[in-house]
Amino acid sequence: MSEILFYLGAVMIIIGGICDLFGAIGLLRFPNFYVRLHAATVGTIGGAVVPLFGVALLALGADFLPHRYAIAGASFITGIIVLLAAPAGATALAYAAHKARLVEWKPKVDHLAEVRGDD
Amino acid sequence: MLESTFMTLMKLIIPLYIAAFVIYAVRAFKGPSIPDVILAVDCMSFDIAAFMAILAVYFKSTFLVSAAIILALWAYLLDIYVAKYLANGEVGA
């Protein structure tokens, strides 16, 4: 039973590392701030929440670890905090960047402006 | 048995996270506008929190995870303060 939890957590940590690297490459290579928000979501949800839940499962299954229940519970709580805080922070940042006109905004299709007939 | 498996896993995991930190740091240093810098620092903080949870299992210490909770909350606070300042021109109520 503990081996199943351990290997499930190990697989989740490996998935988290790969998602983290892909999110970082996307954040470096994407052309625009609003496109970079997508890569940032891959890097936080896939790269931080999944390995935190993986550490919780791995610590529950690890027999060699002292204080394993403390590490599992605290990393589970950290995963829930990141899961709630990262989308809220990214949304607030996108709203502020659009309202303060810091980032150039060139949409290819804007149906709302076509319906309104103006900017 | 499980401990040697975990040490092998760490040899696989540490280069992935270090490479991701370096690429995030490049974007944070060369970001053309303020929201890019804040977004890169945000991603870097959340990923350092996850990496500290992995290192807590590696070093067999509980204190690293309790620091990771505070790091995640601090990154959210940075987002909200900077967004509030950019939208309103001040960090008021």
From TrEMBL, chain A:
GO-annotated molecular function: sodium:proton antiporter activity
InterPro entries for the chain: PhaG_MnhG_YufB (IPR005133)
Domain of life according to the entry: Archaea
Alphabetically ordered keywords of this record: Membrane, Transmembrane, Transmembrane helix
Signal peptide: none
Pfam families, alphabetized: PhaG_MnhG_YufB
Membrane spanning stretches: 6-28, 40-62, 68-96
Name this protein carries in UniProt: Na+/H+ antiporter MnhG subunit
UniProtKB/TrEMBL annotation, chain B:
Membrane topology category: Multi-pass membrane protein
GO molecular function: sodium:proton antiporter activity
Pfam family, one: MrpF_PhaF
Organism domain of life: Archaea
Keywords for the protein's UniProt record, in alphabetical order: Cell membrane, Membrane, Transmembrane, Transmembrane helix, Transport
Entry's localization field: Cell membrane
The name this protein goes by in its record: Hypothetical Na+/H+ antiporter MnhF subunit
Organism: Thermococcus onnurineus (strain NA1)
